[in-house]
Amino acid sequence: PDLDDDYCPTRPGAPCAFLVPAWLGEQETKAQMHLYQLGLLALSLNRTLVLPNVAKSRLSCCYHNPFSFYYAADALDQLGVRTISQAEFVEWSEKRDPAPSAQVVSMVGAKATYLAGAIEIDSASDPTLVPNKPTRNLCLKAPKTRLDFSGHSPLAIYPPEGYHRSEAGRLGFGESVVNTLSSPEVGGKSSRASASRDAPYELPNVLAFNYELRFPIMAPSVVSLVLPSVPPPLPFAHFPYSPVWTDLASNVAASLSPFIAIHWRTETLAPPNLAPCASSLLRKLSLLKSRYPSIKNVYLATDYPIEDPSGIAHSGTFAKVVTEQHHQAFRAFLKSFEKEAKGLSLTTFAREQGRVVLPDALREALATASAEAGKPVGLGELDAGLMGIVDKAVAMRAEVFLTGFAGVGKEAALGCAKVSSFTSQIIEARQARIGEQSAKEDQVRGELWNDVSRWSVKGPDDD
Questions:
Q1: Angle, CA of 293, 298 and 299, to the nearest 5°
Q2: For a 10 Å CB count at each end of the chain, is N or C smaller?
């Protein structure tokens, strides 16, 4: 292609101006929601979203696996968000002449000193640094890309105190963010292109985001309000996973069917609840076995490293808070399962991956990784985040799904889990599949028998 200012890798009709999610807070399940938020923001600013790379249940420009390693490559496009891959974006930055201009934008939680919200323009520091977080590497500086940050000072945008307590407050803040990033006044003050304040301001080609908000600030209605010419995007839906992971999950589910899948999130669960919850879970399994006699297998997905208690927890954040009570509770659970769960066999993905037929692409990837490491490499060693993805995909396909009761407020003492977006994604997928089943006249093997069942400290009958 002609490598002048008109060279652009976007799809027809998509603008050659970009929003890059350089760093996203939170792990994979919630990071999907945050990426969708930035996709809506990109649309509102008439920009194209760059799909971040992925690894270890995180989404960031700093990782080596492409977005399509976890998800369907067109996951955001299916929702009406215009995207390109990070590889396409980097290639564009290398070929474009002149070098693309860029600006760092940081969005974090409310700040006590800015009760009404605020915009900070850091006109003195290195323009490639994240305001107030100088050690955070966005992985967009040379030689990673040819982006030129020198012409624009970093921006930090803070929401008003309590903005998240109402939908109006959240979306109102979202509209103000769109106005801020479109504002000639803000843009002029953040420009370093000339010492003269009268110099014309040009929007940067690229906005590089450090995004740490926990609550949604954008909705399709905001996009339609600020840019009515753009077709309205669809509401958020969890991204479909790459076919290699859904094929693998289908193979595992077929080998276990009919089976119960359990998601037991113990992170932040009160340690005194662990032992009684484990006992209650065993009673619940016995009840389900009597209700569904054909079930012989139980698939356990948990953040506790049940295969190797001395190993790494399945959740990166949980690894910091695992206690001796966790170890005691799970040792007791495993020992009691063998005695009390008559007719049931307990398994995990770590045990199943050696028993099922692996998709060709995965088998080749594991063979390559094993050759490079000089020893056999499993899925968790290939990428620790894949364990959670496959656990979710398997649980979505189980005939029966079981999770702990999330005790809140006065019922906290009964809790055997905490509210989890991981669990919510499984339940939503199961409800959608059950809805599809109800439209069929004939029942077939592999259909779901419930959307979710729960157990609590007080007993197994709490659905």
A1: 150
A2: N
User: From CA 195, how far away is CA 238, in angstroms rounded?
Assistant: 46
pLDDT in tens, the chain (463 residues): 333 456 788 877 778 999 999 999 899 999 999 999 999 999 999 999 999 999 999 999 999 999 999 999 999 999 999 999 999 999 999 988 889 999 999 999 999 899 999 999 988 889 999 998 989 999 999 899 999 999 999 999 999 999 999 999 999 999 999 999 999 899 999 998 755 556 677 899 999 999 999 999 999 999 999 888 888 999 999 999 999 999 999 999 999 999 999 999 887 788 888 999 999 999 999 999 999 999 999 999 998 877 665 544 455 555 556 778 888 888 889 999 988 899 999 999 988 988 888 888 888 889 999 999 999 988 888 998 999 999 999 999 999 999 999 877 778 788 898 888 999 999 999 999 998 887 665 555 568 999 999 999 987 655 5
Q: 10 Å Cβ neighbour count for 339?
A: 8
CB count within 10 Å of CB 283 equals 15
Residue 380's alpha-carbon distances to 151, 258, 416, 461, in angstroms, are 42, 25, 26, 35
Q: Is 244 helix (H, G, I), strand (E, B) or coil?
A: helix
Strands 155-158, 118-121: pairing kind = antiparallel
Question: H-helix or E-strand containing 247?
Answer: helix 243-256
Q: How far is CA 390 from the centre of its chain?
A: 14
Q: Which residues pair with 60 in a beta bridge?
A: 23, 53
Helix (H, G, I), strand (E, B) or coil at 332: helix
Distance of alpha carbon 404 from alpha carbon 424, whole angstroms: 12
Asked whether 19 and 45 are in contact (CB, 8 A), the reply is: yes
Identity of residue 324: E
